[in-house]
Amino acid sequence: MTTGSIVIESARIGAGHPPFVIAEMSGNHKGSLDRALLLVDAAAASGAHAVKLQTYTADTLTIDVNASDFVVKGNTPWSGRTLHDLYQEAHTPWEWHGPIMQRARQHGLVVFSTPFDETAVDFLEALDVPAYKIASFENVHLPLIARVAATGKPVIISTGMATIGEIHDAVTAARSSGCRDLVLLKCTSTYPATPADSNLLSIPELKTAFQCEVGLSDHTLGIGVSVAAVALGASVIEKHLTLSRAEGGVDAAFSLEPAELAQLVRETRQAFESLGKVFFGPSANEVSSLAYRRSLYVAEDMRSGDVFSTRNLRIIRPGFGLPPKFYNVVLGARAKRDLAKGTAVSWDVVL
């Protein structure tokens, strides 16, 4: 069970800490190491806290077959392509991992990856990654989860498509294999996802059910869903990053551009800061505004003994007199002394 905040290198995830924003590179490098390094630079400039890679090859994910089972179907950016062809284009060559991670560390970014099989875990261990991510499509791959958990490093698991029973199985596999620091990400595995299909109310439920940190892997367009997730307790936000949607790329259609990622970092932090605590009454910064409430005031000159009436007693701004709730109490009482127009009514002027 996770207790307290989770530490990944210099970053802290959990209560009292701003959302941990992960820029997912995926295949948006478009087959260019130079572009991959520019994505890292853009993530750093945006204020993101981490860059995440994906570690696989087409042959570790599938086989090169053109049969119907191996062709992407449905309303996705990749419809009609074979799995092997898609993954061949989208994968990040393993020899690029070192240079990409070095660039990220130069910027002070946390950098880690999603392995898609055990050989990828072995490779990433040799690079001493500080954490691991399990993709939604792998959250039923319990042997992989166990292998990752056995490293003893923090594990982030996306829950796209998973039933509560499947999430339980994944969490059990992770914890029973040595994972102490666990994060679950609410995720909708459609590309792009719609806000209506995001079901963010699942976030506090996941947190209660599994007693761990919970975040969002967000495939919607824009940043609104991510901001809303923070209001519901998300401590991690993952978003795909592209240099330019117009220039294309396997995930470009549902990825943020650098300026949008910077806005995401700002707005999710503000959402976090706005949560505060359960508090009622004027805050320290509101005390001066109390002067502009309404209160009871003398509306025309009065002589000692005059009766307070609807003409000479008003509920007006500013707020230095008695609260308006005492209007009917004062009405019909007498003035204890001469009162000038504009005098704040207090109990010591009322007989």
Topology:
Elements: E1 6-8, E2 11-13, E3 20-24, H1 33-46, E4 50-55, H2 58-61, H3 83-90, H4 94-106, E5 110-115, H5 118-126, E6 132-134, H6 142-149, E7 155-158, H7 164-176, E8 182-187, H8 202-210, E9 213-217, H9 224-231, E10 236-240, H10 258-275, E11 295-298, E12 313-316, H11 327-330
What is the CA-atom radius of gyration, in angstroms? 29 Å
CATH fold-level name of the largest domain: TIM Barrel
Q: What is the CATH level 1 assignment of the largest domain?
A: Alpha Beta
The major sheet is characterized as:
8 strands, parallel
GO molecular function, one term: N-acylneuraminate-9-phosphate synthase activity
Protein name: Pseudaminic acid synthase
Pfam families: NeuB, SAF
Keywords: Transferase
Throw out a few tags for this protein.
351 residues, alpha/beta, TIM Barrel, Type Iii Antifreeze Protein Isoform Hplc 12, eight-stranded parallel β-sheet, 11 helices, 31% helix
Give an account of the 3D structure.
There is one protein chain. 31% of the residues lie in helices and 15% in strands. The mean pLDDT is 97. The chain has 11 helices and 12 strands. Helix 1 (33-46) runs parallel beside helix 10 (258-275), helix 6 (142-149) runs parallel beside helix 7 and helix 9 (224-231) packs parallel to helix 10 (258-275). An 8-stranded parallel β-sheet has the order 5-4-3-10-9-8-7-6. Strands 1-2 form a two-stranded antiparallel ribbon. A two-stranded antiparallel sheet has the order 11-12. It has helices at residues 33-46, 58-61, 83-90, 94-106, 118-126, 142-149, 164-176, 202-210, 224-231, 258-275, 327-330; strands at 6-8, 11-13, 20-24, 50-55, 110-115, 132-134, 155-158, 182-187, 213-217, 236-240, 295-298, 313-316. The chain folds into 2 domains: 7-56 and 91-275, Aldolase class I (TIM Barrel, Alpha-Beta Barrel), CATH 3.20.20.70; 287-349, Antifreeze-like/N-acetylneuraminic acid synthase C-terminal domain (Type Iii Antifreeze Protein Isoform Hplc 12, Alpha-Beta Complex), CATH 3.90.1210.10. The chain is α/β, with parallel strands linked by helices and 351 residues long.
